[in-house]
């Protein structure tokens, strides 16, 4: 059975930080594929300057077009908002459970607040977590340290964020090297974040 790592995010827009992590996971862990799950509404985020789902999807689609092991997923587009990961996992399991074994990909920053996620214990009971390093404040909860379901993956640290890209692009700064070329073109042609 193929092992799929799920990388959840708003991807507003997807940038090379996301791409480097996902590519590292498929090349250097036992994951066969990584799916970018585009979240309509993350539980802890506001909708400020959030592009429509289909634009964020289009950018992910174009970013991974030439990476056969990386795929966009729109599974959350038809689910209730805000989108809780535990509920999405149930849907994915119902739809693809016979074909794929799913795991979660997250940064160390998100692991530090993982105890605040809806039913995080249920998630850990059924799924593995692949955690990559990320510079961030705070500590990893002791219940997650050395947990049998949590695997650390030494991916490179790339301190880029979509917020930075949106803000600086809006100010007229050149952010082109931080984005996959097709994403940059789409964003520029569509006049996003201006
Ligand atoms: N440079 C990066 N390196 C590693 N992980 C990242 C990086 N940027 C974002 N992530 C993580 O990737 C996931 C999806 O990213 P998302 O689009 O939600 O975040 P973001 O780029 O930080 O966006 P924003 O700045 O709009 O909040 C999140 O779990 C986020 O923590
Ligand atoms: O399920 C939850 O309770 C939950 C709480 C916070 C975040 N998430 C998921 O984690 C993803 C990354 O979160 P964020 O806020 O760091 O962009 C986001 O797209 C959601 O799918 C999920």
Automatic annotation (TrEMBL):
Catalyses which reaction(s): nicotinate beta-D-ribonucleotide + ATP + H(+) = deamido-NAD(+) + diphosphate
Domain Cytidyltransferase-like: 6-167
Biological process per Gene Ontology, one example term: NAD+ biosynthetic process
Signal peptide: none
Keywords linked to the UniProt accession: ATP-binding, NAD, Nucleotide-binding, Nucleotidyltransferase, Pyridine nucleotide biosynthesis, Transferase
Record-linked InterPro entries: Cyt_trans-like (IPR004821), NadD/NMNAT (IPR005248), Rossmann-like_a/b/a_fold (IPR014729)
GO molecular function, one term: nicotinate-nucleotide adenylyltransferase activity
Claim: DNA damage is one of the keywords in the record: no
Gene3D superfamilies attached to this UniProt entry: HUPs
Pathway annotation: Cofactor biosynthesis; NAD(+) biosynthesis; deamido-NAD(+) from nicotinate D-ribonucleotide: step 1/1
EC number(s) per entry: 2.7.7.18
Task performed by this protein: Catalyzes the reversible adenylation of nicotinate mononucleotide (NaMN) to nicotinic acid adenine dinucleotide (NaAD).
Cited PANTHER family: NICOTINATE-NUCLEOTIDE ADENYLYLTRANSFERASE-RELATED, PHOSPHOPANTETHEINE ADENYLYLTRANSFERASE
Family: Belongs to the NadD family.
Protein name, as recorded: Probable nicotinate-nucleotide adenylyltransferase
Species of the source: Flagellimonas ochracea
């Amino acid at each position: 059975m193929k092992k799929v790592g799920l990388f959840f995010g708003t991807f507003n827009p997807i940038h090379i930080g996301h791409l480097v992590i996902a590519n590292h996971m498929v090349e250097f862990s036992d994951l066969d594929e990584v799916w970018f799950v585009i979240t309509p509404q993350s539980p802890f985020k506001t909708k400020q300057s959030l592009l429509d789902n289909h634009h964020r999807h289009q950018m992910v689609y174009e970013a991974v077009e030439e990476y056969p092991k990386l795929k966009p997923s729109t599974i959350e587009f038809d689910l209730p908002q805000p989108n809780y990961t535990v509920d999405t996992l149930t849907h994915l399991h119902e739809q693809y459970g016979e074909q794929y074994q799913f795991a979660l990909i997250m940064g160390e920053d998100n692991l530090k607040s993982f105890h605040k996620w809806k039913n995080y214990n249920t998630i850990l009971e059924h799924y593995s977590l692949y955690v990559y390093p990320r510079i961030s404040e705070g500590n990893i909860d002791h219940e997650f340290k050395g947990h049998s379901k949590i695997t650390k993956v030494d991916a490179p640290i790339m301190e880029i964020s979509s917020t930075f890209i949106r803000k600086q692009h809006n100010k007229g700064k050149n952010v082109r090297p931080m984005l996959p070329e097709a994403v940059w073109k789409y964003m520029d042609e569509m006049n996003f974040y201006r």
